[in-house]
Amino acid sequence: MMRYSTRKKQLILISLALFTFLLIPVSASLGWYKASLLDILRSLFMPDNSQLSTVIWDLRLRRVLAAIVIGAILGGSGAAIQASMRNPLASPFTFGLSSAASLGVAVALLALHGGTVQRFQIHVYNPFIVSFFAFIFSLIQVFIILLLAYKAGLSAGALVLSSIAISFAYQAILYLLQYLYLNEILVSTVIFWTFGDLGRIAWPELCLVAFSSLIIVFPYFIYRSLDYDLILGGDELAKSSGIRPERVRLETTIVAAFGTALATSFVGVIGFICLIAPHAARLLVGGGHRYLMPTSMIMGSLILTLSDTIGRVIIAPTIIPVGIMTSLVGVPLLVYLLVRGGKHGYRG
User: Fold this and answer.
1) How do residues 191-248 score in pLDDT, each as one tens digit?
2) What is the DSSP string of 197-234?
3) pLDDT level of residue 124 (50, 70, 90 thresholds)
4) With contact defined as beta carbons under 8 Å apart, do 268 and 102 qualify?
5) Are 257 and 309 in contact (CB under 8 A)?
6) How far apart are the C-alpha atoms of 50 and 57, rounded to whole Å?
7) CA atoms of 60 and 21, how far apart (whole Å)
8) Is residue 153 helix, strand or coil?
9) pLDDT tens digits, 278-303
10) b/e map of 162-171 (b: 16 or more CB within 10 Å)?
11) Phi (first) and psi of residue 76, to 5 degrees
């Protein structure tokens, strides 16, 4: 088993944060519209009405900042759920929160006629109603998970498998709605949403997601870091230390559902980040959540930003939605992390 000193953890955390910060202008400079790093810095600190400033501020910078915020939400949510459930396979994605939120988005869009679709673009009339529906459906999935965990007494592995099965049920309901009731435009709207695309979110929605995360999601996960360490030692240890594991699990799942619903309702379904980021962070800084939690958030931001950047430049000018890129990048990366972790004595 690898050992991690406090100084090494701090150095890794600071290095990752610095690298992510430096990645902002680099990512903004890449794309079909050519711009140097000097042009990017000039547009960031001295914006004007030029075409370059418009491209940087209205298109690329918004995408990069959205990747950082949403990646941090997903990475932190994955680490928190894995710890509170004591299950390395647990995440908002495997627990079906993303599927539930996407079904809520679809219901809001279709039943309330909340949006229209154009080529490679979707416009939502009232994104806040869509977010509300996404959160409600995610909350329903939270209560289903807790019911299975405490009333049915399912084990950790059975809980993940049952959650995956329920997520397939959400997809089946969505497909049934598409088949029976939806026209071509509405079906296209839902399909575009399931791709996951950071280009959809506008500045007001991005500010809402960032503000909500800074005052609710991130502080809660950081505040519970020590509690997560105690819960990993067993419920009896946590209770003897004055922690109520059932309450922590409920709160953690609700906060994770809130963050996942916000991300899904504005940018669509983005998978693997909430599963990969905590495992990658754990291999870098070990298992203590004092450093694991912020590292998981930064790793989520880093992976999502890199995935979106690759999707923008690999076959430019066509942009591959980031939800597709995270799956393409996530599968081999997850396998690599598991293989490397096994060689160092890490089993999740």
Assistant:
1) 767 778 888 788 888 998 999 999 999 999 999 999 999 999 888 888 888 888 888 9
2) -GGG--HHHHHHHHHHIIIIIHHHHHHTHHHHHHHHT-
3) low
4) yes
5) no
6) 11
7) 15
8) coil
9) 988 988 898 889 999 999 999 999 99
10) bbeebbeebe
11) -65, -40
> What pTM, to 2 d.p., does this model score?
0.86
Per-residue b/e over 43-80, b at no fewer than 16 CB within 10 Å? beeeeeeeebbebbeeebbbbbbbbbbbbbbbbbbbbb
Residue 71: which of 334, 323, 319, 286 has the closest Cα?
Answer: 323
Helix, coil or strand: residue 152:
coil
Q: What is the DSSP string of 259-327?
A: HHHHHHHHH----SHHHHHHHHHHHHH-S-HHHHHHHHHHHHHHHHHHHHHHHHHTTTTS---HHHHHH
- Name the helix (H) or strand (E) containing 115: strand 115-118
Q: Hey, what domains does the chain have and what are their CATH numbers?
A: 6-343 (1.10.3470.10)
Of 21, 68, 348, 94, residue with least CA distance to 198: 68
Can you read off the two tokens belonging to residue 91?
């995440």
Lowest mean pLDDT: which of 12-21, 83-92, 108-117? 108-117
Say if residues 113 and 135 touch (Cβ distance below 8 Å): no
CA dihedral over 145, 258, 173, 322, signed as positive or negative: negative
Nearest to 115 by CA among 135, 100, 130, 103: 130
**At residue 135, what is the residue type?**
F
Most confident of 114-123, 144-153, 208-217, 264-273: 208-217
Q: What percent of the chain has pLDDT over 90?
A: 25
